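REQUEST FORM: STRUCTURE PREDICTION
Request ID: SP-0412
Submitted by: Lab K.M.
Chain count: 1
Length (residues): 221
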Amino acid sequence: MDYTVVKQNRKTATIVISDNLEVLVKVPRYVTKRQIEAIVTKHEDWILQTLENKKQLIEAKDWYYTKRIMYLGKYWPVELIIQPSARQKVDFTQKGFIIVSDGSESESRQLMEQFYRKQAKEQLTKLAYRYAKLVGVQFQKITIRNQKTRWGSCSSKGNLSFNLKILCAPQEMMEYVVLHEVMHLKHFNHSKEFWKDIEVLMPDYKKRMNYFKQFGQNFMI
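STATUS: Completed
RESULT:
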């Protein structure tokens, strides 16, 4: 069994299974390698069962296994067509997604991520220009990243960064994230003035902000 040992200033040992199915054995600094092996052996059944349970939960939300993915606030079916000799691509129609690939999981996931990344860059850039004009600011460039929880950020150099998983949310929710980061070009903080200016342009911003707190953990690409 693979596991990572983390020695810390702590009094007891504990085993943690991370969201990416990594086994972390956290122990006091004085614990020996033999003692760590004994701890893992003692809890091996629990570790294996927990790994299996977490894997099943992940697969229950993973579009590749469920063959349905959230896009712009709605779940769409995903059809996988295996054609190794054809051009690998993702098409989005009124009926859902069609992936033409060599049949491998890694290729299918890569194609889907590329589709979301391209759409995110196009749609979020348009929104950023719209809100930058309303706020009276300018940004330098936009970067799209695949992050776990952070939806967006704004650097001191005027660069905006957005999570491609935002494409899972409805249009009006995407607008809130973009306005939030664009507003940081005017207020590089979360002061009262920041929220006041947000509210002027988006009176229902709290509702949109809460959407990500409620449903954001279900976004997977």
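NOTES: The chain has a mean pLDDT of 91.
Reviewed by: T.R.
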